[in-house]
Amino acid sequence: MTFLAPFYFWTFLALIPLLGVYFLKVRPRRVTTTALFLWMRIYEEKRRTAIFRRLRDLFSLSLLLIVDHSVSMSAGGRESSLDQAKAKAEDLIRGLRGNQRAAVITLASDLGFQTHLTDNPRALLDAIDRISPSTLPLRLEALKGLEKPIGGGSIHRVVFVTDGVTRDEDLPTGVEVIRVGETRGNVGIVAADMLLLPSLEQGLGLYFQLASSFEESRSFDVIVRRSGDGVIGKLIEVTADPGLNEPEIYTLVDAEAGAWELELDLKDALSADNRAWLVAQQQAPVKVRIAVEEGYFFEKAVLALEEQNRLMMVEEAPDVVLAMASTPDAPSSLIFQPDGTAQWWQGLGDDIEEVVAKVLVGDHPVLRSVDVSSMRFVGARDLQTPDDALVLVESDLGVPLIYVAREEGRVAVVVNMDPMASNFYFSAWFPVLIQGVAMTLSARDSPLASSYVVGKSVALPGYEAVSPVDVFLPGGRHVEESGRVFGPLTEFGFYRMTRPKQEWEFGVSMFQREETLLGAEREVSSKEVRNLASGSPLAWWLTVFAMLVLVAESVLYHRRKVG
Amino acid sequence: MLTDPAFIRKLESLYRLARKVLGGSMQADRKSTKKGAGITFADYAEYSVGDDFRSIDWRIYARFEELIVKLFEIDEDTTIYILLDQSHSMRHKWLHARQMAAALGYISLHCLDQVCAYGAADKLRPLLATARGRGKALPFLQTLEQADTFGEGTDFTACCLEFQARRRRRGLVIVISDFLFPGGFEEGLRYLHWHKHDVFCLQTQDATDRVCDLKGDIELECIEAGRRERVTVTPKEVRLYEEAVTQWNASLKDACRRRGIGLISTTTEVEFEDIIQSILRRGGLVA
């Protein structure tokens, strides 16, 4: 068989049946297994350690350049840590080969893609130049968003430029770290709280904790100032030792509830953590009326909670009405044992037997502190809820057991059981359920803290409220929020929220120990960056291969020539 | 066959062994830690609404003007709950698992304990409603004989939740299973333990669960969900699989040890009467 006699190439056709036989024969046999999940774990692990992944660096064509712009990066005088990080990032971009692509990403609490993958150095340098300091703390968990591109078989290198990381274990595998900046002297407030003291007629309790990255102790004043008129409520002389200090607790006599500012009177590397914005919240008890004929157990439950200043039993103008087997004419009500005709249920049928309760909305504030599994729903009746009702607990047969229904601006929580037959009156969950419903229906289900950590979200009061909340930010912006959570909180200062007839206020402060300490407690990362140009382009390898072939051919030709 | 005379004779001899080893009837062997109505004084407690007025210590009231109630140990017998894994993964161990369930149920019924049995797979299915007495032994064996595996998977946690919702009374819960649950066993065991049940695990596996003799290109099919995966099995994968099963079983042992849960891990190669005898000889179903 030669190229001069191509007829013989037809013999290759004999390979086709051979291939057919091969594929038929090697069709995998089917085996049943009781532990497929264990097998899958093995193959998943195997995929992760595939050899082509280890060769990634050789063909490293793309670079994901992450620049930390968290609040601690703005520390420093003329040249902040962020300026140093940007300079380092620009060096890396300038060092890329022409065929290598890169993307610039910022990281504080979340990742922010400043450019897509590009080989245009001008676009990359412009993106780096645009990076500005954030008020948010560093959240390394956000890097998990990159795990897919890092671990999904793509050929990326990920370089993270930061002023330090807490622990290398927090970093996803494959992220290389460049550390910039140095430890600077800084003192900051890392925790603070303020609340009304029930023991005083008019007085506030103040709690705060400081951290210092100075190598020696520093003494200075802490000024507690009322927001608005700037009246100083207290001047406290403190000494901050290096590292995390013990918490300090003070009492402000004759101070009123409301917005207060806490300020450290000193100059240091980072100013953002020298102030805290606190609101001493004043919460009135929920007014409850009992519309039950034999209301002995209801009264006991409400009186028990009255001692805690949570509920208050009233006859006039209640926030919530408690009822049993009746439908009170009230804007908000809790009804046990549905009976008769009412707008809160339809098709009331017979008692159901052997109820197995299933919780459908476990995080609802009505159920937040109630152990539904220990409740027996004896006397529950077959019924249908109004159309837009929210069923929180239902039986295994789909009968609603606890649900929230609303109609024409009124709202009711219906508990489908006979509390006497269910022995629910003797259960600790009876007062707890009453409190949960009362607090939820009066929009006091999520009591606000005096101050929130920047970057976090705040649960809006009123899980069952229908109207949106107007949020006024410290910078003067106004946002309408109709969800259940507002955030992330990105500005320091006082936030004000309003809803018809209701108003709340809270503060947002830095409160980040690691950011305040500016890397003083941080370990120097062991993950050094490897040479970015370690992987040679394919063209280079092909050229080398061609040269070797040429040399070999020359040698062979020479030998043939010589004999 | 679970109802043939030879098998019942074996159960009878096991029951006699139980009486001999545990010293007569097992009833009331298990002393209750609960407090309530009884004759043995246990403790004092503050009066709260709903307490029996008769338990108020009026002498203390006369002296200190405080309502204090007296608590007594409850006299109660044990309820034995048998949770039998009835998922398709038990297909090859089904007879073995049923034999163990039959033996434990038979002995308990003859000891006049309350017995209740459920089959567990993707949901709970009743096998025996709460029963007491020797007369219920044969119906229990007949039910077990007719029972077959079911479901599209095993959700042990959901089964435990449903079990607790149906059976609130504390008792001894015997779980008979291979414990190869894709969703894990920790949550379910934790839930049972948290609800103050005494839990005992009887793990039964067959040789193919623990040892792998596969080689080459294989299409693995999940016996429960029917999901298929094509894989190539080399000696390395065989070793990894066997290590994974060993590790899984070790984690079950560890979970049981941490919670004070009794565990017997066995294979279908061991005769069921040998397993029951070993349980009895170590003092019953104790951790």
**Percentage of helical residues of chain B?**
25-40%
CATH architecture of the domain at 286-441 in chain A: 3-Layer(aba) Sandwich
Shape descriptor of chain A reads flat
Extended strand count of chain B: 10
Largest sheet of chain A, described in full? 8 strands, mixed
Spans where pLDDT lies below 50 across 5 or more residues of chain B: 24-35
Report strand % of chain A. 25-35%
Give the DSSP E fraction of chain B (strand runs of 2 or more residues): 25-35%
Structural class of chain B: alpha/beta
Counting DSSP H or I runs of 4 or more residues, the number of helices of chain A is 10
Explain what this protein looks like in three dimensions.
The complex is a heterodimer of chains A (563) and B (287). Chain A contains 10 helices and 29 strands. By secondary structure, chain A is of the alpha/beta class. Among the domains of chain A are: 52-183, von Willebrand factor, type A domain (Rossmann fold, 3-Layer(aba) Sandwich); 286-441, Class I glutamine amidotransferase (GATase) domain (Rossmann fold). In chain A, strand 2 (62-68), helix 4 (81-94) and strand 3 (101-107) form a beta-alpha-beta unit. Chain A is flat. Helices cover 39% and strands 25% of the residues of chain B. In chain B, strand 6 (172-177), helix 6 (186-194) and strand 7 form a beta-alpha-beta unit. With 287 residues, chain B is of the alpha/beta class. The longest helix of chain B has 25 residues, at 235-259. Strand 1 of chain A pairs parallel with strand 8 (216-222) of chain B, so a sheet runs across the interface.
